[in-house]
Amino acid sequence: MNGRIDSSKDNKREGKLFILSGPSGTGKGTVVKQILKTCDNVALSVSMTTRASRRGEVHGESYYFVSQEEFEKIIDKDGFLEYAKVYEHYYGTPREKVMQDLDAGRDVLLEIDIQGAMKVKRSFPDGIFIFLLPPSLKELRRRIEARATDAQDVIDLRMSKAAEEIRYLPAYDYYVINDDLTEAVEKVKSIFSAEHQRVDQTAERIMERYKEAD
Amino acid sequence: MNGRIDSSKDNKREGKLFILSGPSGTGKGTVVKQILKTCDNVALSVSMTTRASRRGEVHGESYYFVSQEEFEKIIDKDGFLEYAKVYEHYYGTPREKVMQDLDAGRDVLLEIDIQGAMKVKRSFPDGIFIFLLPPSLKELRRRIEARATDAQDVIDLRMSKAAEEIRYLPAYDYYVINDDLTEAVEKVKSIFSAEHQRVDQTAERIMERYKEAD
User: Fold this and answer.
1) B interface mutation test: which of A199, A205, A211 has the most B CBs within 10 A?
2) Which residue of B8, B64, B160, B182 has the smallest Cβ count within 10 Å?
3) ipTM greater than 0.85, yes or no?
């Protein structure tokens, strides 16, 4: 599908793209951090942006910071799995780095909001889409309020947006309810593992190993 | 699909039927034993047979031992997920016990050969089919020979049967290569876990939890 079939002969591990998505406040970032801490073979996809870097942000870790001109050149080459313009700044997922990791047999984890995930689903339908859910809307409100940074109307806005976003669940492959963090992380990791055991289109490649009756 | 949808409201766990299958000598039995040791919520499906019990075999554990008349009555009621007559004796997987466990929210693990699995696939297409593979045909031969119970022609027969059976891989959902036992068991367990996180037909039921915006 994207050149990775060439690795069939040497039984090289096939990298997979996992998209972890969910409404704001469900704890995507925390789950991602835990996964990166405990999984060897997973690379985090780093976004590219045209906004200025803030204090403490590292190029290539927090974001790839580029000029608007550079960003638009990549758009023209269809070089983003998804991108969006938020106010005056671009944000996007560069395709090239993702493909390099996948080709090297590494899984790639992409943390992204629902809108972005839906774009990735179009540009990379082979991705595995995981929806992170709060235990309940009530608990989500409690978590958003606990951050104590938002005014009440902003909280209400976030809540109604979350309720709306959950309607996209049927577009996802998996859901994980983030009630207990450790359990949620284990569930995501079991999805990573199980996806590497799926037969699907790999049946021919697997059967190839067992062709000679010795 | 089979009455289990009624449990939607109380968020009861939905039991799933996992079929672990593979050629003779791949280590199905050992993997199953390890899983039952370490998984709480999995019941092993016990076969029914008309053959006489052997020393040490316990009714309801090794097999359900029944008369030919009883067995055929159950056949007539379509009470088996699969059955077969091997020489003069019947062997089958009673549907009722499996359904009871699933309804109680327990997963059911069925260890079965490829022919049996293909029958279960017709009678219970919602099952999750896992193919256990040897690391190689060469290693499979080594394992079969190590048992030292079979004559050379029987070993050759087993080997050619295994090579043939592997062609059924595309009918399965997952494959697990039993190279290292611990790893193989972990992979099977990750499949169990991940399958409970699949969105599929359960999206409506999940979204139901998030209907009220508080």
Assistant:
1) A199
2) B182
3) yes
